[in-house]
């Protein structure tokens, strides 16, 4: 139940980055940093739950995509942590080009991770109790 929060925040940050690039209105840059920060806070809780699930259930570890799924999610967390520092700068450089690029990379990795997560649930039946 924790996973949708950081996903929504990080996608929202990409959208507000794009709005900032299109308008140069500093409000969008501020929205981005708040969304990234919220995504990191909730992502920390989701990561903790995911690591406990991964370490505590050998069915999860045995599923093929589980390790890659975890690595991608942790990579997104680290990228967004760096992105928060980039977005904390003032002016145009808080978003363009590095912040926008990091947001795009993060959302792309989230898409791959979501595909793997769906595979874990629907193909490997991880997390589904009989």
Helix share bin: over 70%
Number of domains: 1
Overall geometry comes to elongated
Instruction: State the order of secondary-structure elements, H for helix, E for strand.
Output: HHHHH
Number of strands: 0
Structural class: mainly alpha
What structural keywords apply?
single chain; 130 residues; mainly alpha; 5 helices; 0% strand; elongated
Provide an overview of this structure.
It is built from five helices and no strands. Helix content is 79%, strand content 0%. Helix 1 runs antiparallel to helix 5 (98-122). With 130 residues, the protein is mostly helical. The longest helix is centred in the first third of the chain and has 31 residues, at 26-56. It has one domain (4-122).
Quick recap of the structure?
The protein has helices at about 5-25, 25-55, 60, 65-85, 100-120. The protein is an all-alpha fold.
List the helices and strands and how they pair.
Layout: H1 4-23, H2 26-56, H3 58-62, H4 66-87, H5 98-122
Helix pairs in contact: 1-2, 1-5, 2-4, 4-5
